Amino acid sequence: MKMKKKVSIPEAPLGSTGKPIPLVGFGTAQFPFGAATEVVKESVVHAIEVGYRHFDTAAIYQSEQPLGEAIAEALRLGPIKSRNELFITSKLWLGHAHRQLVLPALQTSLKNLGLEYIDLYLIHFPGSLKPGTGFPFNKEDIVPLDYEAVWEAMEECQNLGLTKSIGVSNFACKKLERLLATAKIPPAVNQVELNPVWQQKKLRDFCQEKGIHITAYSPLGAKGTRWGTNRVMECQVLKEIANARGKSVAQVSLRWVYQQGVSLVVKSFNKERMKENLDIFDWELSAEELQKIEQIPQYRGSRAEVHVSEDGPYKSLEDLWDGEI
């Protein structure tokens, strides 16, 4: 049997207590959520074999259970010897973003995953829904997020050792400031949409100043999801660089994200592309190429209009994204 060549993925330190985060991770959100659990399981086992060590899931993706089964299988088959070799991220859904529901939600995620702890637990979005509301939801289910109370409950999860680090996702600058104002443990990570078509320079600078690590989701534009577009994969600038380099557009985009000093989560269930997406470490984009990419017109793909409501906390997209749209 031909051995798969395993790639060694660089890591970055997380806060003072967390385990280092692998700079390229593997996403498990398959739309519609929960549709392809067997595919998720098979893909994760293969991803571990080729070298991925960070796996990103969320309660709402319904991929925690197949991810957990894949981890158990990988431990049995031998590409990893210990769960400690992996970095697992999951996320608190909005319907559980209430002080008293945070710990039970994490305990449910751990049960789904078959794990005693995860490495990173994120508030999925700077919003909340009436307790127990799932996805999709109605505008009347939207309620304001109690930042202080929910973050205290997140801190409790870390203090109990059920997660090694805590963080947020989709938080713009003002929302991070609001959280930092009362946080005893600052968020270790902010996971946000980031790619050459949505470069988030202002947010990256802010997070760097505050010591918050950024993980990029949709680094290839998430084509095929509700929130995704083909603007990255069809970008002329990226195509020209890829052709000149003998690389794929995906590799150029992922390398650009990696060169910004952030980590990223990429999803492909195609075995060849899984390997291709890891082939970004032994070459780099030149200053000239980086400058060309900086000139690309900017467009936020994941706008989350569903959270905007006359009666809710966010009356406009400007409100929701602190003007960064």
From TrEMBL:
PROSITE patterns: ALDOKETO_REDUCTASE_1 (PS00798), ALDOKETO_REDUCTASE_2 (PS00062), ALDOKETO_REDUCTASE_3 (PS00063)
Pathway assigned in UniProt: Secondary metabolite biosynthesis; terpenoid biosynthesis
Lowers pKa of active site Tyr, annotated site positions: K91
Active site: Y61
Pfam families the record matches: Aldo_ket_red
UniProt KW keywords: Oxidoreductase
Ranges where the NADP-dependent oxidoreductase domain occurs: 24-296
Sites where the protein binds substrate: H124
Keyword Oxidoreductase among UniProt keywords: yes
Name under which the protein is recorded: NADP-dependent oxidoreductase domain-containing protein
